[in-house]
C-alpha cells in the first residue's frame, strides 16, 4: 500500500507559489519499507530534502527551512497579499484570515446547498473572501475637486503676488511710454510716411487729418 | 448563433452575433506568420475542460480565472458555467459571485453583454443556488 502526502500548502509560505505536491516518503508497511513513487516535481530541492526529514508535520507559518542553515523569519511583504484589482478578481488569499465562530459555522453551511443560504449569509460569505466589491473598488473618489480647488487657490495667490509686485517692486516705466510722447511719436511716423502703401500711413487721411474710415 | 466570445478590442461591436473575428486567441501563435492559429471553438473547449477537471483545486481556479480575465475578451457562457461548477465543487460561493462581477466589469461599455450572460447562465445559477451581485445588492457602491 502506498501513500502520497499532500503538504497543506497555506501553512508553508515559502511554497505558496508552488502547486500542492506529493513528496516521496519512505513508508513502513507491514514491517517492510517501500518507496513511494513521486507524483509531481517540486521547485526547491532543498525544501524537499528538509521537508522529507520533517515528515508530514505542518510547519508553522513563520518558519521557512533553508537547507540545514537554520530558520529564516518570513517577512510580511513576502507572503501572499490581498488586494482588490479589476484585473485580478480572485486574490491569492481570503480577505478575512481569522474567522470568528459564526463565520466558521457559515463556512460549514457553505458546503451544503447554496440555495438554503439567505441573502445576508451569501453577502457575509462574500465579505469573508473579499474586501470591496467591484462596484466599490471602481467607484472613484471626490479627490479631483480638492485638486482643482487647490489649483485655483494657488493661481489666485499668484495673482495677488503679481499685483503686489506691480505696486511695490517695479519702478516707473520709461518716459517714452507717456501719452504726450506717444502722440509726438505718432506724428513723427506719419510725417515720415511709414509704410505708405499698405501699412501704417496708408490708413491716415492726410487731407482731413484723421484716420481713414 | 453566438459561437465566438466577444472580442472587445475590435471597435464597432454593435451586436453579439459576430462571426468569427479576424485574429485568434492570444495563447496560440502570437506571430501570425507561422504556426497554427487556435479557433474560437478550440479556445472555448480548452477552457471548459480546464474548469471541468473534477478535482480542480482552489489555486487552479484562481489562476484560471485571473488568466481568463486577463484576455481581451468576455468568456463564453459555457466557460463561465464550468467555472461556477468548479466553485461549487470547491464550496466557494464568494468566488462564484466574484466571477460574475468580473465578467460584468470585463464587458466594459458594452452593457448588453452581461444580461445576455446571465440569461444564458440562469439555469446553472438556479441549479447551484448562486445569486447574482444585483440580487444581493453589491453591484452598487
From TrEMBL, chain A:
User: What are the recorded Gene Ontology BP terms?
Assistant: mitochondrial electron transport, cytochrome c to oxygen
Give the species this sequence originates from: Denticeps clupeoides
Q: What does this protein do?
A: Component of the cytochrome c oxidase, the last enzyme in the mitochondrial electron transport chain which drives oxidative phosphorylation.
User: Pfam families annotated for this entry?
Assistant: COX4
Q: Where in the cell is it found?
A: Mitochondrion inner membrane
Chain segments annotated as transmembrane: 147-164
List the membrane topology term(s): Single-pass membrane protein
- Know the name of this protein? Cytochrome c oxidase subunit 4
Keywords attached to this Swiss-Prot or TrEMBL record, sorted alphabetically, are: Membrane, Mitochondrion, Mitochondrion inner membrane, Transmembrane, Transmembrane helix
InterPro entries assigned:
Cyt_c_oxidase_su4, Cyt_c_oxidase_su4_fam, Cyt_c_oxidase_su4_sf
> Is Transferase a UniProt keyword of this protein?
no
Q: What is the lineage of its organism?
A: Eukaryota, Metazoa, Chordata, Craniata, Vertebrata
What domain of life does the native source organism fall in?
Eukaryota
Q: How does it assemble?
A: Component of the cytochrome c oxidase (complex IV, CIV), a multisubunit enzyme composed of 14 subunits. The complex is composed of a catalytic core of 3 subunits MT-CO1, MT-CO2 and MT-CO3, encoded in the mitochondrial DNA, and 11 supernumerary subunits COX4I, COX5A, COX5B, COX6A, COX6B, COX6C, COX7A, COX7B, COX7C, COX8 and NDUFA4, which are encoded in the nuclear genome.
Gene Ontology cellular component terms for the protein in this record = mitochondrial inner membrane; respiratory chain complex IV
Similarity comment text for this entry? Belongs to the cytochrome c oxidase IV family.
CDD domains the record matches: Cyt_c_Oxidase_IV
Question: Membrane: is it a keyword of this entry?
Answer: yes
Q: In what pathway does it function?
A: Energy metabolism; oxidative phosphorylation
